[in-house]
Amino acid sequence: MIVRSANAGTLESSDCLVTVMPAETIEIEYAGANEKIFRGRTEDLVREILGKYSLTGGAVKIQDSGALEVTLRARIETALERAMEAIAR
Amino acid sequence: MTGKNENMKNRPCRSMLYIPGDSPGMIQNAEVFGADSILLDLEDAVAASEKDAARKIVSSFLRGFDFGPLIVTVRINAADTEYFERDLEEIIPCRPDAVRLPKCSSPNDVKEADARISEIEKKNGIPAGSVALHAMLETALGVEDAFAVATASPRVTALTLGGQDLTADMGVQKTREGWELFYARSRVVLAARAAGVMAFDTVWTDINDPDGLYQESKQIVELGFSGKAAIHPSQIEVIHRAYRPSYKEVRKARRIAEAAEEAARVGKGVISVDGKMVDAPVVARALRLSATASLYDYEEDEEI
Question: B188 FRET partner, CA 20 to 30 A, in B24, B95, B178, B197?
Fold first, then answer.
């Protein structure tokens, strides 16, 4: 369960900044230079990762500066784990 | 040991470029810099608040990114830190070529890490010994124990000298000439050769002094190091230049190699080049030098 808001990543080139906040349902916000091309891919990725953590709710905001999928994945997971931290520990 | 380690032993590893584990932009461009290998760093290059993020970036890249011909080593945090356990748990299942373990001061430090890595390999269904261990010697005690550290586990495939911490431990300055590290370097190389593992030298920290780096690199090549760590992409070319055999050496080595081949072909036990007898260690060295030379371009009329 997401218990607090948390960030991961940067706005540097080839990176992305991910912000996660508690929410009842899954809400995904995505901004980046190639929004049209990558929105679908990124939303699928967020849903897949939320599923992996058994989360049915959470607001995920991504500012993408050209991150590869491996980078997006790492940043989303880091932000989620930070946002879930109080329970995990 | 599995094929992966054996394979690594036979690949040149003249340069090892440190890349901060939380810099995806640099990691994705790693191959462009031209290093023989990269060291994805979870330790000193990563702030305490970003340790979790760096671990995620490194494991995500190891699982889903093609590093091409690069040898990929991950420097984890030392065993006496709170990060050590999680570093191993998240990194070992991703099967990097090796992990670099800082602050090895005794064979026991290696044995404990080895036991932990073996457990994680087993739990994840990875063949035992898949991930090699590079033991960093950066204390006076570690250097004195170099051979025992190198032979503490078959997982150890390299010793590596940590010059910054070692000079601090010795209470001396790291100088441009590096005499304070001369004995430690010699000791580490000798221990590594005796144990049949590779030896890697410490970093040159002044990125604005490539001449100093070149001189130090020549010195460590002559001492017998397998490679040297770099902290900036611009240092790679300098290190590679230091490893480049002269054309004269290459020409001589090739003639010895050809003579050895010819002798083997006709079944002669004794090899002679220009009327002089050449014995086995000389042939072995010539073959090694030829292998190194194959990494470089040579002009026929080159004079060095």
Answer: B95
